[in-house]
Amino acid sequence: MSEATVKKIMYVNRKAPYGTIYALESLEVVLIAAAFDQDVSLVFMDDGVYQLKKGHQTKGIETKNFQPTYRALDDYDVNKLYVEKEALEARGLSEEDMCVPVEVLSAAEIGKLMEQQDVLLSF
Amino acid sequence: MSSIEVNGKSYETDEEGYLVNLAEWDEDIGKVLAQGENIDMTPSHWEVVNFLRDYYNEFQIAPAVRVLTKAIGKKLGPDKGNSQYLYELFPYGPAKQACKIAGLPKPTGCI
Amino acid sequence: MLHIVNKSPLERNTLDSCLAAAQPGAALLLIEDGVYAATRGNRAEGKLRAAAQRLDIYVLAPDLDARGMGQSLAEGIKTTDYAGFVELVTKHKNCQSWL
Q1: Is residue C97 less than 8 Å (CB to CB) from chain A?
Q2: Inter-chain contact A111–C98, Cβ cutoff 8 Å?
Q3: Which of A9, A10, A14 to mutate to test the interface with C (most CBs of C within 10 A)?
Q4: Helix-then-strand count for chain C, H and E
Q5: What residues of chain B lie within 8 A of the CB of A68, using their CB?
Q6: Which domain holds residue A86?
Q7: pLDDT digits 0-9 by tens, C44-76
Q8: C-alpha distance from B103 to closest chain A C-alpha (Å)
């Protein structure tokens, strides 16, 4: 695919994982769209940071645990994952609590990255 | 809902022939699913099928064909991690057919 | 770029999240329950008016009217209609909906 057709696409994840279907839907869209070889990044803001909180155990709620799938993102060449610093702090979390390697950025820094995108998809 | 018959027991499949409950899978079911795809299972076929099951257990997804090819190359070497090799084993799509035989859902990102 | 907020500031944190990320010069459009932030006496009025110093803020008038708030718009906040909504979307490079 030529450089000219590569778009910058950012997925904005702001919801906690199991209370609603947003987190899982976002992940599936990311995996499917990865076939198109675009410049993809994922950001996790607000309660979205809970999606990456290590150690999900979903047996008791009889729901599929999709956390292991975040570790497959690298195989799909999706490796720009940004997590909002203020969101981590407000939830008593830190970078070490994340289940995959991420870059921690302030909300304003994430806002600057948003400005550079061709497409933003909100979940 | 359709189903397949293996050793006198019936197992539910979806409308495309994928096993509904992947926990039910065993090699005999794999063999019957392979017959449905007109594939004679050899050790090379089983190697890919078992790779897919391991991948699913680790990541909870059936990988897209591009990802499967790359991941197999990493684990089993470049002579196996290429689409020619995989398409010779599974002519109608390595991810699709091997996933079906492995009792996994249709690969995520398979369009 | 254009930011869109559609939730009440007293029910959700979307307005705060948006204001924390939005860069100076960006546009913000309040629609649906998001319009309450731009009404006089709402707890969010102050921060919205402060944000109006650095952001280009609009409120969707039909949503304001539907909620009986047509006469309660905070000072200095602009309204727009559906045609204006479309124009805002087309004239900006990209758009983030703070769901």
Answers
A1: yes
A2: no
A3: A14
A4: 4, 5
A5: 58-60
A6: 3-122
A7: 999 999 999 999 999 999 999 999 999 999 998
A8: 17
Domains belonging to chain B, first-starting first, are 2-101 (1.10.10.370)
Number of structural domains found in chain A: 1
* Spatial strand order in the sheet of A81-84: A103-105, A81-84, A39-44, A8-13, A119-122
Q: Which two tokens stand for residue B12?
A: 């539910």
Q: Tokens for C8?
A: 């009440």
Phi and psi at residue A73, to the nearest 5°: -55, -35
Token pair for B45: 């076929």
Which of B74, B95, B110, B111 is an active site residue? B110
Kind and range of the H or E run holding B85: helix B83-89
Q: How far is A76 from chain C (nearest CA, A)?
A: 25
B99 is a catalytic site residue: no
pTM of the model: 0.90
d(Cα A74, Cα A68) in Å, to the nearest integer?
12
pLDDT tens by residue, A34-80: 988 899 999 999 999 999 999 999 999 999 999 999 999 999 999 99
For chain C, domains (ranges, CATH) are 2-98 (3.40.1260.10)
Q: Which residues contact A67 (CB under 8 A, 6 or more apart)?
A: A17, A51, A52, A56, A99
Count of residues making up chain C: 99
Distance from CA of B20 to the nearest CA of A (A): 15
Rounded mean pLDDT for each run of 10 residues along chain B, 111 residues in total = 91 93 95 96 97 96 91 94 95 92 82 49
> Is A107 close to C20, i.e. CB distance below 8 A?
yes
Nearest to B4 by CA among B38, B33, B34: B33
